[in-house]
Amino acid sequence: MRINPVLQKELKTKLRGWRATVLISCYVIFLGAILLIYFAGSGMLNPYNVSGFNPRLAVNAYNILTVFQFALLFIAVPAITATSISGERERQTLDLMLVTKTHPGKIIIGKVIVSIAHTMLLLIASMPVLGVVFFFGGVGIADIARLLLFYVFTAFFVASSGVLFSTLFRRNITAIISTYIFLGLIAFGPFFGYLIHLYIKEQAAIVSSIAYTPNYGEILAILFPSPVFGFTSFFFSGSIDYYSFDLWGTVAGYIDGYLAQQTGILRLMKPWIANSIFSIIASVLLIIISTAVLNPIKRKR
Amino acid sequence: MVVVDNITKRFNGTLAVDRLCMEIPEGEIYGFVGANGAGKTTTMRIIAGLLAPTSGRVFIKGIDIAKEPLKVKEFIGYMPDFFGVYDDLKVSEYMAFYAGLQGIYGEKCRKLTDSLLELVRLTDKKEAYVDTLSRGMKQRLCLARSLIHDPEFLILDEPASGLDPRARVEMKEILKELRSMGKTVLISSHILPELSELCTSIGIIDSGRLVASGSVREIAEKLSQTGLVKIRVADSEEEAVRILMEMPEVGEISSVAGVLEIRVSGREETYVKILKTLVGNDVPVVSFHPEESSLEAVFMKLTERSNENEN
Q1: Total-model pTM
Q2: CB-based contact B101 A91, cutoff 8 Å
Q3: In angstroms, what separates the C-alpha of A190 from chain B's closest C-alpha?
Q4: What CATH number is attached to the domain comprising B263?
């Protein structure tokens, strides 16, 4: 099997030398430091701690790490992909690729896979840090495998979005900003949409004097495009008491509460599954659009 | 090999290429000449399949590039006027990357890389990082890259631009080798002498229009039909002008620092006739100097004429 030449070149140049090693090491050390500070702050590392071991602390630490990784995925992947094509254009190397018999779609796919590969490298490298929670229980390997799968689909969507804006705009900075705005709208837009929906329904309920109760079907129908919605599946409610004041815990608990009321097929359609399906379909569409935009024969300039 | 059928390209209303038609037979080295901004690069990018024309079609080996772009790209090697390199790649890796994009891998790729680096005299730089190469070396590497899939047709956009005289000579030697290999080449330059000894035919482009096309000799001959003659006469300039104006072969007449410059339609026989007429009318001719139609003059004249028509 031949490796996509774009992927092969990018991996070779990005992983060569000391830069990649240092970057990965810093990332893992940073995650480890977060974990250590959290445990230290919770008194777990205190040898004179007399209150005993609280296993929920490990689950809380897991929640913090997953949120951190999720945020990193949204920050780092666009920075890589939003310059993937515009960077080639700025460097004046794009024409040299497009004049070959490689289909523009293959170039786009190569660029998307490169960023997913980089993300996966960082995520897999961080597994030993996440694995610390195994010592305490509460989080299983299947949970982490599901989380990784969700990260891959989300990275696929984020990378495809970045590549699209990179093909649309000639300048790196424009492409990066547009990608962040687009992803911000996709991630948080549906939540605003849902709040508006709630407001309208509640106003209607006041007028008609018939009480309104939200249901999971409505939540799913409005929030499914948002990766943040999908990510609520990975919030461990075992720590809800600790995080009850926290916005993230509240949102995740709210959605989880309505999901628990379902009995039919909607119960299977968990936030992460619904969002992953959306991510896959949307990514394929974004790649098709990027290919059409990049195709010089179809491009107008 | 290449047929360009009436292509036009507009960028936001600006006309870059205007109904351009040309044909390049197999084995031809076609020099594409024009001033900066004349439309050379746009035309070449359209022929290379990197830009869609607003109208018109391009055929390479009889295949419409708009219909089968990937098939056509198998036959094309393209070297742009400005290009970047990946500075974190070695020369051999750079070649392997583009070979991969052309579907060439493994042993075949290694052999081709070796032979092409030898052709462009970069064998000793095989393991050097691309960013350590000089400008001339990068140009040669880019040429080697464009040859990695052994294309039958090469598009070279100003291959010698920005090179020092020595690098220019080296590039010219490589292009001669390509000619001997039987490649069909479309090469552009805004410097005419650069192409005169290399090309079998030339096309002159001005304001997006092909104002002349043919073999170097054909174009020079065509232009010598309307030559420029400089005549210096002693004291009888007005009389000379009157006589010349009566002659149907004489076109535009101007006087520059005591020297009459006349446009003459016709060749040597006409020059003889003009000189005889002047002397026969007792005009004291001090000097009579028909200008040689250098390629440079051809270019200047053709582009000047097209500008006049435009105005």
Answers
A1: 0.80
A2: no
A3: 37
A4: 3.30.70.100
